[in-house]
Amino acid sequence: MLTITPAARAEAEALFAALRDTGALPVEADILQPAETLLDLYGEDIRARAYVTQDPLRGEMVLRPDFTVPVVQAHMANGADPARYTYMGPVFRKQDHLGPRASEYLQVGYEVFDRNAPEADAEVFALFARLLAPLNLRALTGDIGILLAAIEGLSTTPRRKAALRRHVWRPHRFRALLDRFAGRAPLPEARLRLLDHLRSDSAEALMQAAGPQIGLRSAAEIISRTQALLEDAATAPIAAPEAALLYDLLGLAAPADAALAHLRGIQPLMPAIAPAVDRFEARLAALRAHGIDTATLPFEASHGRTTLEYYDGFVFSFHQGEPLTGGALAADDLPAVASGGRYDALTAILGAGRSIPAVGGIIRPALVAQMKGLPA
Fold it and tell me: What Gene Ontology terms describe what this protein does at the molecular function level (predicted)?
């Protein structure tokens, strides 16, 4: 059983107090959350990351994997506009696939609901940078919104664009799909055999020949899926110039000001990204007003693509610059000391028709204590 150490608890209390001092309203969230909400947001994939249990009265529940979703739900139900919140408490995530990481740990967080999006982005990042400055962490920023805009601007079918959007947060699957849609990777042999079989007769006849229907999918759903597979197989590849620009965007890594210049350079060839690049430029101006040197601030267009799937704009993280004392893990193998980002779409999903731009972030106090040489 994991024990949260006194040092981690003390760091959490200190960070929580500092965030309250900004005027943020302290909030709490139940440790047991309805699983239905997370399943609706992320699908069955969330079961691989969260601890799901059954309550005889409340149904399927999940141990709180983070605070953002319940805070957004509470705010959209009765929150002010604008509003700032802070919280502290344990979260629970399955992390066996990531090596020796704790499955229960403290989070301290800060969430901002404010319609002045560039200023709010800069506010949260600058606040975290100030609180963590004594640790000499390395910052990294990104913008999921630019990538999503580039996908939306592709000259391909709505179904293919939807598939790419859905897998933005699964980089390996996304790259495999893009390679296939761009004609850079052949169809797997099994998919080719399946397509040949589907072309051999009508879907109804093939289902009849297959025997009794087994499973939860209806006949109509199966027929729709077969039609989608055949239509996709007949779709022309994404044009090579468009695909090349998207590959270029996926690999973009540079100081933020230089990244902006690069994006402005490719914008005429990818006009769909223009509004997202305008927001990026406005955010950099707001960051500079908060004393952040955007000429040296690292930016990666793909940053944030392995987090929970609600970020849809600015993303950031703060990392240890050196390996753990006496440990063998490199800094990049360690969890971020702090991370966050913008999640405007989530407020619309949970707001029952209402939405408000929102951005926030979390700090892991145990890692802060560890970097200070305290028993985390």
Answer: glycosyltransferase activity; histidine-tRNA ligase activity
